[in-house]
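Continuing from the previous page...

OK, I double-checked the sequence for LacI family transcriptional regulator against my notes and this is the correct one:
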Amino acid sequence: MSRKITIKDVAKHAGVGIGTVSRVINGSNSVSPKMKKKIFESIEALGYTPNYVAQSLRTHKYKNIAFFADISNPIFAQIAKESQIELEQFGYTLSLCNIGEKDIANKISSFLEGRRFDGIILSIPKEDDEELNESLSNIDIPIVTINRDLPNLTAKVLTDYYSSVKEAIIYLLSLGHTNIALVGGNKEIRPTREGIRAYKDAYLIHNRVPNQALIKNGKFSSESGETIFMDLLPDIQKGYITAILSLNNQMFYGILRGMRKAKLQYPKDISIITFEDSELMQLLDPPLTVIHRPIKDIGKSIVKILIKSIEEPEQIEEIESVVIPTEFIIRDSCRPI
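Thanks. Re-ran it with the corrected sequence; updated structure tokens here:
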């Protein structure tokens, strides 16, 4: 089945910006006759059929944004909340769709069918889904991704995992820990890749070579976190592994459950650090050392980029990604050895 020709293809063929093509299709008088002729020739050559629904979206007729994520992760629910608060200031509503981990392309297309949206906020479980990436390339409304590197989607909000993970590992190494387990999700997504890169670089700064076997990956679930912990348990009990850094809060809950079952305490038996700060992390006894992500700032940045993409489509190719800084907060869940 041949790929659907999009406005992006027309812009590339004509050697102009997407916004210029959009203005010509919408009958704007701001484009010269010579340029209009060139664009219409590209439309005819490529066999492009304008998506009039998408055009009406760009006139803000619907004032609705679609948010696609696996909302079993409570962080995405928080990001959705902060995005909605920000969107309300611009008169938009947010429609949330839980895409889970499988059959993502069909879930997204089914959700979009029969509904009208001005833009999309997106975070998917993996970046190498060819069917999904092809499907996304055929969508003619702005898409902002969260912590994902996807083909042809340049508008994105990223979290600086690297800096704080490196700082956390250096901190543990300075306390005397040499065998630190790094627990994360799918290695084919940006957050895990950046976490692993930071982990390795921190060891290099201390002139050490990390044990690759201590980099553990699984699903973003407490069950997976507990399974990984149980696999690590014999080496923890032997005193070989003395610290764990979890890149995911859901997996961390499983690590805590595994510790309880094994009757281990932190930091006495194992030092631990995790992502995401909350009142619970501060109330645990002892309070947890964490890497904090400013969820409110993430939500605001997503909306800022998305609104700009909707209101200034001619600038969409020039919109730069935003990197949100993280903060490493030291509390009492790690001990020197």
